[in-house]
Design goal:
alpha/beta; 15 helices; 12 strands
């Protein structure tokens, strides 16, 4: 009888230790930290975990320490690519140049399926780099006469000047959301819009109906509505062209416009929309190739430290990414060598340099490398700019 009792006791003990399929047995509960802010360590220490907001700066430091000089410089270029399919040249720009992004033109676009395939392939190549950083894939999709994508099955919007005629910020926000949501589906993440230049003079060849109007307050209000709609769609909007083409009558694609307005006049007029955009949290601002001779008698805005650092950053408080307009436009190339353009872009405070097929982008990257290695550009300049770029890419999920 004694042994029977022992046997039954063993059976009951074993049964009590069994769990049903799918159930988990915890020997002890994991201890909670005494301080809610105390970090809880992962069981698997090398598992990739997205850093908390509190650790953002530490994460940036660690990430940036992994980048070579070539990678830091390459990330500062957004450039053209040939054709409608991934090419050897595009692969070279990504793998050798480590470019930060591409800008799509009409010749890159055939139809919806082709464009989605191309943008996916570009990102796939970028993710093969070490470390992997997704590309900016940017496009000029303003509406009206400036729109690269014109499929039959995509919404066709009139020029922004006519959006403003409704005097309804909700319309602007909705139009911006629809337009940008559609390009997001095609693989774009960056739109070179909205135009915040004032339509101060009736010249249709430069800004014209690309502008939201001539009243700086209304343009600012509608511009911030646009930024809200684009952000809700998941697209990085680029406010352009700082400090503005509103007083120009010369097309900077071919010649250098010169404006005599004083800084205080600009602050009260042309810069109002940009100031409102900054206060609403705009992530990126594009420069204008315009010489404001009362502020800087030598260099146009894109190359002017007085304008980009002194005015835009220090006086207006912009902390985001500054991108140049196309550096191959006549306003620059007719007056400066390409080395002078690259050097003064970097010295002025440009974070991203936009370039098209007039030059080999790898050669431009090599010029920038040489400028740093010779000490013509201070080391802290590249660190500050690449930090802003990486921070924005993290914000929009382009760095995992």
């Amino acid at each position: 009888m004694y042994w029977v009792c022992i046997f039954l006791s063993l059976i009951l003990t074993l049964m009590s230790c069994q769990t049903q399929p799918g159930e988990a047995t915890l020997k002890e509960p994991l201890p909670l930290p005494e301080d809610p802010g105390e970090e809880v360590k992962a069981v698997i220490s090398d598992y990739p975990v997205q850093p908390s907001v509190d650790k953002a700066e530490e994460f940036l430091d660690q990430y940036l320490s992994r980048l070579s000089l070539r990678q830091k410089i390459g990330q500062r270029f957004i450039t053209w690519i040939p054709g409608t399919v991934i090419s050897d040249e595009a692969e070279r720009l990504i793998s050798v140049g480590y470019i930060g992004g591409v800008i799509l033109y009409d010749y890159n676009i055939a139809d919806r399926l082709q464009l989605k395939t191309l943008t996916a392939a570009l990102q796939d190549y970028a993710r093969r780099n070490e470390p992997a950083i997704d590309l900016w894939i940017g496009i000029d999709q303003e509406g009206g006469r400036v729109r690269r994508i014109q499929f039959k099955n995509i919404t066709s919007f009139s020029a922004p000047y006519f959006w403003a005629k409704y005097e309804d910020p909700r319309y602007i926000e909705a139009a911006a959301y629809i337009l940008n949501r559609e390009i997001l589906d095609l693989g774009c993440n960056l739109n070179f819009s909205p135009v915040l230049d004032l339509y101060a003079k009736g010249d249709h060849t430069i800004i014209g109906d690309r502008s939201l109007g001539s009243d700086s307050g209304i343009v600012g209000q509608l511009g911030t509505s646009y930024l809200k709609g684009a952000k809700e769609a998941g697209i990085i909007a680029v406010a352009k062209h700082f400090p503005g083409h509103g007083l120009t009558m010369v097309d900077s694609h071919f010649e250098l416009p010169v404006v005599a307005a004083a800084e205080e006049y600009l602050i009260s007029n042309d810069l109002v929309p940009f100031q409102m955009a900054i206060e609403s949290g705009v992530d990126m601002i594009m420069t204008a190739h315009v010489l404001y001779k009362e502020i800087d008698p030598v260099y146009p805005a894109t190359l002017s430290r007085a304008i980009l650092t002194g005015l835009l950053r220090e006086r207006m408080g912009f902390e985001g990414v500054i991108i140049s307009d196309q550096i191959t436009m006549g306003a620059l190339t007719n007056n400066f060598s390409i080395r002078e353009i690259i050097k003064n872009c970097l010295l002025a405070g440009v974070d991203l340099i936009l370039c098209e097929n007039s030059y080999d982008t790898i050669e431009l990257i090599e010029i920038a490398e040489d400028l740093y290695e010779r000490g013509e550009i201070p080391g802290e300049e590249i660190d500050q700019s690449i930090r802003r770029i990486v921070k924005l890419k993290v914000k929009y999920g382009l760095i995992n």
